[in-house]
Amino acid sequence: MNIKTSNAIASALLCVLVATFVTGCDNKNANGATGPGVEETKAIAQEGFLYGLPIVMNYAVMYEYAVDRNSG
Fold first, then answer.
1. How far apart are CA 66 and CA 71, in angstroms?
2. Residue 28, Cα to own-chain centre: how many angstroms?
3. CA–CA separation, 18 vs 23, rounded Å?
4. Is the pTM of this model over 0.85?
5. In contact, 49 and 55? CB cutoff 8 Å
6. Tens of pLDDT along 4-27?
């Protein structure tokens, strides 16, 4: 895996985590705390990774194939 691919994966995961906290900041969980709990955040991040990774990897492959003139 090259640096562009790992940066894309890290960016996708960061977006999932930020979206999780932004969308859940007005909700109360079972403990009465604001926002999603640790377990819910972990579950959302895992789902985002599972569903988002193939899209990000496909983009990286297509970028190398169609855009990057220096790739093999």
1. 9
2. 24
3. 9
4. no
5. no
6. 666 666 676 666 666 666 555 555
Scan for tokens 């960061």, then name that residue.
Answer: 14
**What b-and-e string marks burial along 6-27, b requiring 16 or more CB atoms within 10 Å of the CB?**
eebbeebbeebeeebeeebeee
Chain mean position to CA 10: 7
- Residue 4 to residues 8, 27, 32, 56, Cα–Cα distance (Å): 6, 36, 41, 10
Can you give the residue ranges of every domain in the chain? 3-66
Q: Report the length, in residues, of the chain.
A: 72
Both tokens assigned to 5: 């691919």
Query: Is 40 exposed, middle or buried, given 0-12, 13-18 or 19+ CB atoms closer than 10 A?
Result: middle
Encoded tokens for 61: 């492959």
